[in-house]
Amino acid sequence: MVENRPPDPSRRSERSRRAIYDAALGLVGEVGYPRTTVEAIAARAGVGKQTIYRWWPSKAAVLLEAFVALGDRVAEENGAGDARGLPDTGDLAADLKVVLRATVDELTDPAFEAPTRALAAEGIVDPQLGAEFVQKLLDPSLRLYVARLRAAQEAGQVRADIDPRIALELLVGPLTHRWLLRTLPLTHEYADAIVDYTLHGLAHP
Amino acid sequence: MVENRPPDPSRRSERSRRAIYDAALGLVGEVGYPRTTVEAIAARAGVGKQTIYRWWPSKAAVLLEAFVALGDRVAEENGAGDARGLPDTGDLAADLKVVLRATVDELTDPAFEAPTRALAAEGIVDPQLGAEFVQKLLDPSLRLYVARLRAAQEAGQVRADIDPRIALELLVGPLTHRWLLRTLPLTHEYADAIVDYTLHGLAHP
C-alpha cells in the first residue's frame, strides 16, 4: 500500500533544504552576518552540521543560495517578471513601473528586509563576499534590465546612443539609495517618479 | 618673551581634537564600527578617555563629527563647492559633472573609503545610527543639490514639474549604488554619463 512506502528521500531533503534556508535567513537578519554560524543554522533547522557541509562549503554559500531562493519566491509573489525577463507589453514606462513598484514591495517586505540589509552591510565591508553577492544575486537581475532596455532601443523608444548597463542604474540606484540609507519613505509614487524622470529627463526639451 | 608663554590651550585642544578624529576614522576603517571603542580611540590619539567623554557623549558622536570634518576637508581639496552651495556657472550639466566627478574622487580616496564604508554598513543595520548619519552628514549635502536644481528651474533649464528632492537621487543614487556594491568601476566617465542621462532622459524626444 502507498502508506507503507518509505518517505521519499528527495522530498525529505527538499524539506531540510528549505528549513536550512529559513534558519540561515532568520539568523542573519537577527544577529548579523558575522555572528551567524553554520552550527547555529544547523541547530535552528533541526539538522546536523554535517548535513550543511555535505551540501555547501561555507556559510556564505548557504546564505547566497538562500537569498536566490528567497528572491525567486518574492519575485513570483510580486509578479515582477522572473528569471526569463522583465514584462514587455510594449509600454516601457508602464513595464518599468510594474517592476520598480514590485522592487519597493520586496525591499520593504519584512521577510526580505532584515536578512538583505545584513548581507548588504557585510558585502560593503567585505569585498569578497560583496563580489559573490553581486555576481550571484545582483547581476542576474541587472541583466534583465539591460535586455528590456535593449528591446526598447530596438523598438525605437529609447535613444540608440544610451548604454543600457549604465541607464539601468538611474532606475535601481535611487531605490537602493533610499532603501539602504532610509533617507525618505520608499513608496510606489517614488518608484513612478523615478521611471518618469529617467525616461524623460529633467531638462526642458 | 614669546617662547616662555604657556601653550595656547585652544591650539592644544585643536590638536587633540584632530588626533581624536584621525584615530576614530582610522580605527573604524580598520576594525569596523562595532569593535571601535572610545578606549581604543583615546589610546591611539594619545589622550585620556575622559578627554573624549568631556567633548562627546558617545563613540557615535565622535565619529559623526570626525566624518563632518573629513567631508569638509575632502570637499575643499576637490573643489566641489562647499557648505554654501554647489558651483553655479549657469551651465547645469557642466556644474553637475564637476560635482559628481569630485564625488567619485572622494568615494575612491583611501582616507575616505574605508571609514565611510564601515559607517555606512553599520547605519544599514542600525536604524538609529543610520538616522544620525543621514541627518548630520547626508542631508546637508543633498540640500545643496536641491538648491542648485531649484536655481536651474528658475533659470528655465529644468522643467517646473520636477521635484528637485526626488530628481537629485538620479544623480547620487547611481554613484552610491556602484560604490557601495562595487558592481563596476566608479569613474569620471560614469559620472558624466549619469549627468547626461539624468538631464536628457533615455526616451526618444
UniProtKB/TrEMBL annotation, chains A, B:
GO MF, any single term: transcription cis-regulatory region binding
The entry's DNA-binding region: 37-56
Entries under InterPro entries matching the protein: Homeodomain-like_sf (IPR009057), HTH-type_TetR-like_transc_reg (IPR050109), HTH_TetR (IPR001647), Tet_transcr_reg_TetR-rel_C_sf (IPR036271), TetR_C (IPR011075)
Keywords: DNA-binding, Transcription, Transcription regulation
Pfam families per UniProt: TetR_C_11, TetR_N
Domain HTH tetR-type: 14-74
Record-linked PANTHER family: HTH-TYPE TRANSCRIPTIONAL REGULATOR RUTR, TETR-FAMILY TRANSCRIPTIONAL REGULATOR
Name of the protein in its database record: TetR family transcriptional regulator
Native organism: Streptomyces atratus
